[in-house]
Write the structure tokens for this entry.
Amino acid sequence: MLRARYSFLSSSKVLEAEVENLQLDGEIKPNTNLSEVRLRRSSVVLMQNVTVKKLKAMIEKEHKFPPGSIDIVSNLYGITHENDEKLDTTNVLQVVRHPNARIIPAHLSTTLPDITYPGETEPRALLSCGHAMAADTLYQNITVQLKSGKSVLKCFSCKKEWNFQDTSEKAQMSLDEKLFWGMKVSLNSVGDECPKCGYYCQRIAGDNDRAVCMKCSKEGKIYEFCWKCKLSWKDNHKCLSKEAIQSMINNCETKTMPYSNIKDVPSIRVCPSCGALIQHLDMCKEMRCYHCKKSFCFVCLTMCEHGLKCSSYMSKCFVAPRQIV
């Protein structure tokens, strides 16, 4: 018998579901006997390499939840697993339950128009900045900001800060959601960006420069990088010397930039603000430094305070020579 163990973030109990015929005409057929058990070490046969989509469907069916009611997450790293990911369920799955509906109570509602959708007819909450937003829209706004690595929530219109506790209440978050996104706020405040995907990560230990990106680490392939130099981690890793960095800049290939079609641009630069080593992989010429979080034009190396200063992302500008560090 195949089994999957999972726990809602707001509960200390672990649920164990037995599953027969994991795949049958594309559907999951869990049995209806669900037992609540204490977390324990046991020699059970666990499902491995099962997609998140199938696991979510199984759990939703066991609890008679409507589709889309849950997410499977990693609370330690602040990750929401995507539907096409495959999980090894040796460990207990962490589940976030979403509310069936986000209804703002009368004492929190306002007649002001929604700052995002002025024609919104759903009840709106009055936010601390003075703007109004429907609960679903507010929840999406919060999660987008936190997924992008921000640790301080702000109104997209007036840029005033929002308090997480206040906004989570007005977004009508479930207890699971409050626990998960509250942890994400904490992780973002001490994390740094993965040089490969831009996701916020943490060091394995405070005195160790070895870091792991859980988003890039899929299906048993662990992606590790150096916290300081952001290069891929190898055994006996040493950060590049100044001479080694200069050699990489001098000998890197040139490329044609997407959108602007600017040719012969060195594919490796150092950030003009902090000196971090950066390689251009795709997208336009505006680059955001993973280290200092400032933006600059990868072609002419002009700093960008509020967007490109040299020209638009589709226009040409002067190609700065290879830098000297």
About this structure: The chain has four domains: 2-97, 106-190, 196-226, 242-304. The radius of gyration is 24 Å. Residues 2-97 form a domain with the Ubiquitin-like (UB roll) fold (CATH 3.10.20). The first helix runs from residue 52 to 63.
